[in-house]
Amino acid sequence: MQYIMLMIKNGTLIDVAAHTQYQADLLVQDGKIQKIIRKEEGIVAEEGNAQTGDMQTGNAQTGDAQTMNIKADTTQVIDATGLYIGPGLIDTHVHFRDPGFTHKEDILTGAEAAKKGGYTGIVLMANTSPAVDNEETLAYVLEKGKQTGIRIETCANVTKGLKGQEMVDMETLAEKGAAGFTDDGIPLMDGQLVKTAMERAAALHKPISFHEENPERITNNGVNAGKASAFYGIGGSPREAETDLVERDLKLALLTGAETVIQHISSKEAVEMVRLAKKEGANIHAEATPHHFTLTEDAVIAKGTLAKMNPPLREEADRLAVIQGLQDGTIDLIATDHAPHSAEEKAQDITKAPSGIIGLETALSLGIRELVDKEYLDYPTLFERMSTAPAKLYGLPGGFIAEGKEADLVIFHPTETWKVAEFASKSSNSPFVGEIMPGVIYYTICDGKIVYHK
C-alpha cells in the first residue's frame, strides 16, 4: 500500500481553541492532522523554490517528514507562505434544490460552489420536492452527498409536505441520519405543534430550526417595509413579522429545553430577544447571514430582485445590531442561506421574483471585509462562528485544527483580492457580482484530500 502524506509549510494557522494564530507547518496523513510544528516567532521554515501556494510532490523520507518520523512513499508539499490556514468552513443553512428544482442547483454543483468557497461541511435544508419528510428522500440526499468529496448532511422536515399540519416521524428520520429538523422557507404557525416538535427534537438530541416570519404581517415578502417598500410602491415585510415568531419560539425553547436555532436573524429587536433568552438559560442558537451583516434595504433599491430575500435586508441600525450580536456571541453562527434561483426567475417583477441569493463562494470574503478588516471580529472568532460552532451544533467532524483531528482545512490569502464574476454554482443570483473582495482561497482540504485548488 502506498502512503501519501500532505505537508503544509510556513502558513499562519488560525487556532480557534487557543484564540490565537501563529506560523506553523502541518503534516497530514490518513485524513488526520498528524503533526503541527509551531514556528518560533520570527523564524520561518526554508522556502526552497516554491512560490506562495505552490504544491510539490516528492519523496517523503527526507527533510521535515523524516524529522517527524512519518513513513510515506509520496509527499505533496504546499508552500503556504503568506497564506492563512483555518478549519474548513461549515454552513448549517444551505439549499441545493435537489431533488425537484435542479435547474437552479443540484447536490453536485452546490458542492463545487462550497469547495470553491472553502467549505468542507454542509447541512442542507429540507424544502425540496419531494420534501425530506420520508426515508426515501433522506436516503437519496445523503447518498448523493457522499459523491461530492465533502461532508454533506441534511435536515428533515418538521411537518409532512411542509404544510405545517401533520408532524413527520422524527424518530425514524433521526435514526436514518437526519441532522436536525426544520421547515425552513415556510414558518410554522401552530404554536402547539411547535411545542410538541421541540419536545420531540429535545428527546432525540437534535437541533430544530425556525424560519421566523409571520405571513399575517407581510404584504409583500423579501422587501423591508420602509424606504425600500416605499420605493417600489408596495407594502413590504415589517420587522414585526420576525419578532412575533421569535418571541413565541424563544419562550417555547425555554419551556422545552430544545436546542433551537433562530434562522437568518435580521432585526435589532430579534437580536436583543435572543440575547435576553440566552441569559435566561435557553438552549438557543442564532444565525447571521453575510448579506444581513453587509447590506441594508438600500441594496434592494439599487440591485432589485438580486437583493430580495427572506427575511429582507433592513436598516443600518439592524445591520449593526447583527454585527454586535456576532461580537458578543448572541449570534453564534454565520450561515449563508445559499439560495440559488435561475436568471429567468430573478428577472421577474419585484413582487413576483423568488427571494434568496447564493452565498457559498462569497461568504469568507465578506467575513474578512466586513468583520475582520473593520475590526469587529478577529480571525479566531470569525472561524468560531463559521466553523467551530456549526460543527459543535450538529456534532460534525472538523471545526478546529489540532493534532489527531480531521484534516478539514481552508487555505487562503487574507489580503489578495478577486472579482466576483463566474461561479461554480449553477446559478448566479448575487448582489455582489462585479465587486472586488479580499480573501482568495487557494485550497480546500477535506478528510486530508485536496478537493479544491486555485
Please tell me about this protein's structure:
The protein has a domain of 308 residues: Alpha-Beta Barrel (TIM Barrel), CATH 3.20.20.140. β16 and β17 form a beta hairpin. It is 30% helix and 22% strand. The two termini are 29 Å apart. α7 packs parallel to α8. The chain contains 14 helices and 17 strands. The protein is of the alpha/beta class and 454 residues long.
Count of helix runs: 14
Question: pLDDT average, as an integer?
Answer: 93
> According to CATH, what is the class of the domain at 87-394?
Alpha Beta
Look at the helices and sheets and give the structural class. Answer: alpha/beta
CATH superfamily of the domain at 87-394: Metal-dependent hydrolases
Total beta strand runs? 17
Query: Which ranges are low-confidence, i.e. pLDDT below 50, for 5 or more consecutive residues?
Result: 41-51, 57-63, 65-69
Cα end-to-end separation: 29 Å
| Main sheet record | 9 strands, mixed
Write the CATH fold name of the domain at 87-394.
TIM Barrel
Radius of gyration: 22 Å
CATH architecture of the domain at 87-394: Alpha-Beta Barrel
Residues in helix, %: 25-40%
Quaternary form:
single chain
Global shape: globular
Strand content: 15-25%
